[in-house]
Amino acid sequence: MTDGWFALYPPVGGGRGAYSPMVAELRDHGHCHLPALAGRDNRFAESAAVRFTDLADDLWTQLEAEFGPGRDPGGLVLFGFSMGALIATEMAARLQQRGTAARGLVVAGCPPPHLLAGHALHTLEDAALTAALAAQGTVPRVVLDDPGLLSMMLPVWRADCAAVASHPRRPVVLDCPVHALGGTEDPLVREADLTVWPRLGGAGSSVRMVPGDHAAVLDRQDLMAAAVLASADRSSPTEARW
């Protein structure tokens, strides 16, 4: 059992439904904060942020609104995959600056912020951008096969990629445990970089590699949910339970 709650941040182009399988499980254990990003869900008419600082400011405002009686910031476990991992890390850092460490941070398919590569996907032409994201295996096939959906998603993808490219890439050191998950064959995230994550977190931090590439990590929502729940459970060492 846990007495924590959860905040989940999506990958490039993702919205509130990005983690539907794991959210269904997590909701049996605590409140799930699923922020609304501009350009998708109920904010579809808004332009997606192209600067990471603007994106983070928006999402921090939404997270702050969750704090209150019965929802202790110190019981929060933050999670994100790829771009979402960068956002979750930034939220954990802001929470710590506020004076309260999160209970835990779980990151998947992403290097530590200061080790980000300098990819500029947002500068590619539409076809090249689509091909690059499709090659990562994380773009739903239904979007790639539907010209209408594709035209709607391209501005969001481009903005998200620009936001990632604008990340300040400063080292982050956190008091809370950090648990990292990555694929052994992920061409975008080196295993050597993933192993740095535990050095940036508090006691009990860990890293776990699973067979597969970038998309394979996102497909393991069962394992991601297990990591989040283990991070929320203070009864025994996290790394022994996921």
UniProtKB/TrEMBL annotation:
<dbReference type="GO" id="GO:0008610">
    <property type="term" value="P:lipid biosynthetic process"/>
</dbReference>
<feature type="domain" description="Thioesterase">
    <location>
        <begin position="8"/>
        <end position="222"/>
    </location>
</feature>
<dbReference type="InterPro" id="IPR029058">
    <property type="entry name" value="AB_hydrolase_fold"/>
</dbReference>
<protein>
    <submittedName>
        <fullName>Thioesterase</fullName>
    </submittedName>
</protein>
<dbReference type="InterPro" id="IPR012223">
    <property type="entry name" value="TEII"/>
</dbReference>
<comment type="similarity">
    <text>Belongs to the thioesterase family.</text>
</comment>
<dbReference type="InterPro" id="IPR001031">
    <property type="entry name" value="Thioesterase"/>
</dbReference>
<dbReference type="Pfam" id="PF00975">
    <property type="entry name" value="Thioesterase"/>
</dbReference>
